[in-house]
Design a protein that fits this description.
The protein is of the alpha+beta class and 87 residues long. The chain contains three helices and four strands; from the N terminus they run ββααββα. A hairpin with a 2-residue loop joins strand 1 and strand 2. The chain starts with a strand and ends in an 18-residue tail after the last helix.
């Protein structure tokens, strides 16, 4: 996990607890680019992989995987509440 400007960023490995693989990584990266989500890059070096990985905000990953697990259309997470308060 990386923290920049008080925002937590997670690689897919950190978020999922296992390697995501290139197909899922590419799918998530395309969604992040489409919706102009913030991301950071992190250098990784281990016996299996050496190179840069993308890290995304937890709210983006939570929303993405929630939609995927529930066979729903991915909806961009809102950073701010824009609606009427009930009081």
């Amino acid at each position: 996990m990386q923290i920049r400007d008080e925002i937590e960023y997670y690689s897919l490995y950190e978020y999922l607890g296992k390697a995501a693989g290139p197909t899922l990584g590419d799918e998530i990266n395309k969604a992040a680019m489409k919706y102009k989500q913030k991301y950071v890059k992190q250098e990784v070096s281990n016996p299996v992989y050496k190179g840069e990985v993308f890290c995304y905000t937890k709210s983006f990953l939570d929303s993405y995987f929630y939609a995927k697990e529930n066979n729903e259309e991915f909806v961009l997470p809102q950073d701010t509440y824009d609606g009427d308060l009930p009081f």
